[in-house]
Write a structure and sequence with these properties.
alpha+beta, mini-chromosome maintenance (MCM) complex, domain 2, 3-stranded antiparallel sheet, binds zinc ion
Length: 122
Amino acid sequence: MIKKNDVILLGTILLLAAAAIIFINIRKTDGSRVVITIDGEEYKTLDLNKDTTLTIEVAEGAYNTVTVKNGEVDMTEANCPDKLCVKHRKIHYNGETIVCLPHKVVLQIVGGEESEADMIAK
Ligand SMILES: [Zn+2]
């Protein structure tokens, strides 16, 4: 015989499980755009669905080349001293970033509504 409390408990567990699945899915949502920031100022936003290569002249003789391909963003070239941004793996999830410290360039993946839901979840 099933008691009423058991049904409520089961229902709560199912609800939590469903919420967890939704939460995980939101966390893993691919972003839809990449925002390029130079020295704290927004420089350009690129669509991840459009393959493109953009060379940014950060300052006199300083550049970073950003490549968008197959929905992923990569810093393919830069003449910064450490080249950490070039070595960084490709990014495509919401909130992921590639930072070029010497040039103060930040690439950040952003999504649409998923991104906002993600922020609330934090
Ligand atoms: Zn760099």
